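Structure first, sequence second, as always.
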């Protein structure tokens, strides 16, 4: 998938710079809470990835090229994990995120 193709809109890029770390930290907190049997805390941490995905979904509606539809639950999980824990960070550290933000 050509990540930059689906991440061109400045507003969506700004949403992602906040929402992706929220997803990652919330997921880490959720795993920690489940492993330590803090189930009420786990419910609170579950809100972070859910709100993050909702924000990113709204951001993607601003894009000139919308993301391809998910082929099913497995595809959804695979693509979300790949984007949140891999592709976004590569896009960010490669400098392509800031280039897209500047409109280049």
């Amino acid at each position: 998938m050509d990540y930059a193709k689906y991440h061109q809109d400045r507003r969506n890029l700004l949403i992602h710079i906040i929402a992706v770390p929220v997803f990652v930290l919330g997921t880490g907190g959720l795993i920690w809470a489940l492993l330590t049997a803090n189930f009420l805390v786990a419910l609170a941490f579950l809100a972070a990835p859910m709100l993050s995905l909702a924000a990113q979904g709204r951001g993607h509606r601003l894009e000139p090229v919308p993301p391809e539809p998910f082929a099913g639950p497995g595809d959804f999980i695979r693509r979300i994990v790949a984007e949140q824990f891999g592709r976004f960070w590569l896009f960010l550290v490669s400098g392509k995120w800031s280039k897209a933000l500047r409109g280049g």
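Margin note: The chain has a mean pLDDT of 95.
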